[in-house]
Specification:
about 70 residues, mainly alpha, about 0% strand
Amino acid sequence: MAKKAETYEAMTGRLEAIVSRLQEGNIPLEEMIKLYEEGSKLALKCRETLDGYKARLDVIEKQRAEAEDE
């Protein structure tokens, strides 16, 4: 079964939780590495999501500008 796509807000919320946990310290090295890896993947997914939103906004802005020129 395919994993349901997470919202940007859910991903950033999880990323914040990971950062907080890592900053607390006092966790085993193996868990720290796993959290770091998960956080890195989430950060990349967040960046890709934002890039997609920016591309959509660029299209909307271009269409708006073209409509004004007519």
